[in-house]
Design brief:
Blueprint: H1 2-19, H2 21-33, H3 38-45, E1 50-53, E2 58-66, E3 74-79, E4 82-87, E5 92-100, E6 103-110, H4 124-145
Length: 146
């Protein structure tokens, strides 16, 4: 009897993850650009909106994405001391990239950047180009061998 429940739970998790690919892209991008050199980062993500030199070894890059199509319906339920919003999605993301000695050392997302199901989904387009370039590079050797 336990097996059908696990299968149902697995199907439910798969369905939820399929509905929030932007969250997956944002998280995967954060992981994949760690250690990348700054020149490569700029070539796949574009020039940062702002930069700030922190010290001789450290620079911050700020990438910004304003998401005009927030989509969905947003319902706010009034509660004493504020409210709870259901539906809709965030509208902007600031990706702060810390470069140390010419390489990406950290990536943090800030702003109103959650989509309806996942966290930080509005940030996905910022580094999507980097993910695509890495995927092309992985496929290239296997395509040459064919």
């Amino acid at each position: 009897m336990l097996r059908p429940s696990l299968a149902l739970l697995g199907s439910g998790l798969l369905a939820i993850s399929a509905c929030s690919p932007a969250h997956y892209v944002a998280e995967k991008a954060r992981e994949s650009i760690l250690g990348m050199d700054a020149v490569t980062l700029k070539s796949c993500a574009g020039l940062p909106t702002r930069t700030e030199q922190i010290d001789a070894r450290t620079t911050l890059y700020s990438y910004e994405n304003k998401y005009e199509r927030t989509g969905g319906a947003q319902v706010t339920l009034p509660i004493i001391g504020g409210g709870v919003s259901l539906g809709g999605s965030g509208s902007y993301c600031h990706a702060i990239v810390r470069i140390v000695d010419g390489r990406v050392a950290a990536v943090n997302y800030a702003g109103d950047n959650d989509d309806m199901i996942g966290k930080e989904g509005v940030c996905a387009p910022i580094f999507r180009g980097c993910l695509r370039e890495q995927e092309k590079a992985r496929r290239a050797p296997s395509e040459r061998a064919s």
